[in-house]
Design goal:
Shape: elongated
Number of helices: 2
Distance between the termini: 72 Å
Structural class: mainly beta
Helix content: under 10%
Length: 536
């Protein structure tokens, strides 16, 4: 076979594969002209973007040397995006077929590379994103709202990709790679990175129907976020909330950094303290507990360097200091949660990656603390997140691959585990952080469904009725991205003022976007969750 024929065959195969991958939606490089409502068309040539009527007559013209036309419906109009070939920047255009007008909008900032491909994506929040791809594989994802243009993330895509297309219904970014074929990426920046090869369409085969991904989960916006942690990679893990005794705005958010120690933030997300005490994993808070002859507020965390439990004291102003530690004898300590029994003391449930749970009574010993072992029990596989309902003496614990269990929290009670929510359609492994919201009429258990980047809410009492699930989306006005791959979370029904008057939810974010950066914690108003899920 001659080189010319081989090149032609490869080009034909790639074109067929890309067309098959996106059918029946539309071709990856929108043909000129592109079909619009009411028989109108949009055409792009070397000199202009043109709006043509049903009879082919030109109704409007935007003089520009441009390429890479892509469109999305926008109410009664159409959103189009082109790339200005002279300035190497993308320009949105509002197409009004009724008035017969083309109106250029605020352009996107020019990237630091020449644009080889560009395509639009509309996410589940109905926000419009733009992917810009360079010849060498550099790529950027941007989001737009009105005149707002924010960079979401940077990507590494195949080199020499001349075409891209976003399948909105399936949240996929499709990119061709010369000589290889078509790759599918997660178009949702909050999803897990990765790519899959798209099989080429066989000659004569019909396009298989492509069912959309129907996600009925509600979407709530974060109201705030913390400063990023000081370590990159998988660092931030689990938050806890301390309530100020008299000033709602004086609350503190505690967060673990698995590579550094304990962080303390205010309600505006400003970092106030860093206690460099090693690789902390989970943290929990209880207030007004009896520890020896003192009544105080404490935070307790698992320390993975030496498999110990560290106890912190929190003073009336929210300042955190170390109060002592005790060894556990576990081989790979992991998660933990606290329990304040009716006598006002404090107890801790600590787990190991092998499924072991140790139940300790934390007591004062000289100037430090000790842990007195009350119970030992085990689940079959790896656990982590847990939370205790102090009012009803119930422990809820997550077995990451299996589901949520409950068991009596009292130290003298038998450890009879009851599965209340298995992994399945409503809860995707891994089961991670969990927290309890104590409402006026109903208590709710909130669980991180890490496998699908959502949060499940169910009644905290039998029969543990599921109330719904939600995701955390973008708050573009505040420059805050959503959350994904969440490890730990915490919720409180206390009045923190402002949007948090009915409480707040703090969520660890596995992928910090807008722009990319180290992980952090997001603040969500409980009232927003309650309205989205129509809770009592």
């Amino acid at each position: 076979m001659t080189p010319t024929l081989l090149t032609a065959l490869i080009a034909t195969t790639l074109a067929t594969a890309l067309t098959a991958a996106i059918a029946p939606a539309r071709a990856a490089t929108l043909p000129n002209p592109a079909t619009l409502p009411d028989g109108n068309t949009l055409a792009l040539d070397k000199t202009a973007l043109r709006l043509l009527g049903p009879d082919g007559a030109e109704r409007a013209r935007l003089t520009v040397r441009a390429r890479h036309l892509d469109t999305r419906p926008l109410g009664a109009n159409t959103l189009a995006v082109i790339v200005d070939a002279n300035e190497e920047r993308a320009v949105p255009v509002i197409v009004d077929t009724r008035a017969g007008t083309l109106t250029a909008q605020a352009p996107f900032p020019a990237p630091a590379f020449g644009i080889e491909a560009a395509c639009l994506y509309r996410d589940a929040e109905q926000l419009d994103h733009l992917f810009l791809v360079a010849k060498d594989g550099q790529a950027e994802q941007w989001v737009m709202q009105g005149d707002l243009r924010l960079q979401v993330r940077k990507l590494a895509l195949p080199p020499n990709s001349k075409h891209c297309h976003a399948d909105d219904a399936r949240h996929q970014l499709l990119v061709n790679e010369a000589g290889a074929g078509v790759w599918s990426y997660n178009a949702d920046a909050e999803g897990v990175p990765g790519r899959k090869a798209v099989p080429p369409k066989k000659a004569g085969a019909r396009d298989a129907p492509r069912a959309p991904i129907n996600d009925a989960r509600a979407i709530v916006m974060p109201r705030g976020q913390t400063a990023p942690v000081a370590r990159t990679g998988d660092a931030a893990d689990d938050p806890a909330i301390w309530v100020h005794p008299s000033d709602p705005n004086g609350a503190r958010i505690l967060g673990t950094n698995k590579k550094q120690g304990l962080l303390v933030y205010d309600l505006q997300g400003k970092q106030l303290q860093l206690l460099e005490v090693g690789r902390l994993n989970n943290v929990d808070v209880r207030q007004n507990v009896k520890l020896g002859h003192r009544t105080l507020d404490v935070a307790v965390a698992t320390q993975r360097d030496d498999n110990s439990v560290i106890v912190f004291a929190i003073d009336a102003g929210g300042v955190v200091s170390t109060a002592g530690a005790f060894a556990t004898g576990l081989k790979d300590i992991y998660g933990m949660c606290l329990y304040r029994p009716a006598d006002g003391g404090v107890e801790a449930f600590v787990n190991d990656k092998d499924g072991t749970f140790l139940h300790y009574r934390i007591e004062a010993e000289g100037n430090g603390v000790r842990g007195t072992l009350l119970r030992r029990f085990k689940v079959a596989t790896q656990p982590e997140g847990c939370v205790v309902d102090d009012r009803n003496a119930r422990l809820f614990l997550g077995e990451e691959r299996r589901g949520v269990w409950t068991v009596a929290a009292s130290g003298d009670a038998p450890a009879r585990l009851e599965m209340i929510m298995p992994v399945g359609p409503q809860l995707a492994a891994d089961v991670e952080g969990m927290a309890l919201y104590h409402g006026e009429r109903q208590d709710y258990l909130v669980v991180s469904s890490q496998g699908d980047n959502s949060y499940l809410v169910l009644d905290a009492r039998a029969p543990y009725r599921v109330r719904g699930s939600f995701r955390v989306g973008y708050n573009l006005a505040a420059g805050i991205d959503g959350t994904s791959e969440t490890d730990g979370l915490e919720v409180s029904s206390a009045n923190f003022g402002g949007p948090y008057g009915k409480g707040m939810l703090v969520i660890q974010d596995g992928y910090k976007r807008l722009p990319d950066g180290p992980q952090n914690f997001k603040y969500v108003a409980w009232d927003d969750v309650a309205k989205a899920l129509k809770l009592d």
